[in-house]
């Protein structure tokens, strides 16, 4: 017996408001589990509320569900770290190695030609402004993927990632390296610092995009 929209809404309210769950992925999984279990019990004549209460007790009540969410968060965090590590490593393998090499050359050239300009207050303000604007457009694209679909404009996403990472790399350099150190360091050292931040920012944004894509696909299915 298929559940009605009102019954599915009751399950969602039960998980969110009555049991204080917040993780959307876990709520989706539990909703499916609740729905399947309740449907089975409804076919035997068990009332909806009693069936939902029985499944709730099977999870150990609110305490059991909250403990499940805590464990779910921990496992998700580990998975995200593994995925972030794999994305970072991919920038040292073909074909993405070309992006790393090209970015390093650009950063090295900028560090050679304009070492002190990176410390300028005007440049710092400009970098922060551009980074804020590119972040705005990047997250706006994330929020509109349900309309355009993930994967149709991957080049635009990559450009946004690159701009974010490039400008934030210079901004970090400006924040953390005093003028004297910046002048005395070899450009290769400052380039290394920049490329580390650059690849980290790119990888983090890509991780976010992959996660958003996964969430949208699960919702649409």
From TrEMBL:
Alphabetic keyword roster: Membrane, Transmembrane, Transmembrane helix
Keyword Transmembrane: yes
Transmembrane segments: 97-116, 122-138, 158-177, 189-208
Name the UniProt record assigns to this protein: Uncharacterized protein
Organism: Larkinella punicea
């Amino acid at each position: 017996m298929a559940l009605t929209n009102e019954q599915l809404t009751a399950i969602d309210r039960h998980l969110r408001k009555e049991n204080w769950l917040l993780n959307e992925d876990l709520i989706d999984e539990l909703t499916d589990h609740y729905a399947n279990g309740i449907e089975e019990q409804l076919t035997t004549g068990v009332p909806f509320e009693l069936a939902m209460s029985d499944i709730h007790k099977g999870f150990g009540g609110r305490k059991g569900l909250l403990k499940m969410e805590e464990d779910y968060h921990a496992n998700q965090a580990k998975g995200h770290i593994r995925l972030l590590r794999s994305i970072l490593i991919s920038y040292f393998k073909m074909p993405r190695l070309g992006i790393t090499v090209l970015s390093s050359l650009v950063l090295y050239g900028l560090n050679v030609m304009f070492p002190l300009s990176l410390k300028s207050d005007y440049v710092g303000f400009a970098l922060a402004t551009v980074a804020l604007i590119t972040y705005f457009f990047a997250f706006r694209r994330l929020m509109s993927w349900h309309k355009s679909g993930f994967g149709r404009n991957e080049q635009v996403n990559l450009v946004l990632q690159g701009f974010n990472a490039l400008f934030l790399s210079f901004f970090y350099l400006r924040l953390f390296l005093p003028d004297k150190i910046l002048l005395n360091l070899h450009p290769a050292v400052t380039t290394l610092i920049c490329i580390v931040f650059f690849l980290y920012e790119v990888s983090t944004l890509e991780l976010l995009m992959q996660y958003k894509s996964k969430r949208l696909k699960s919702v649409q299915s």
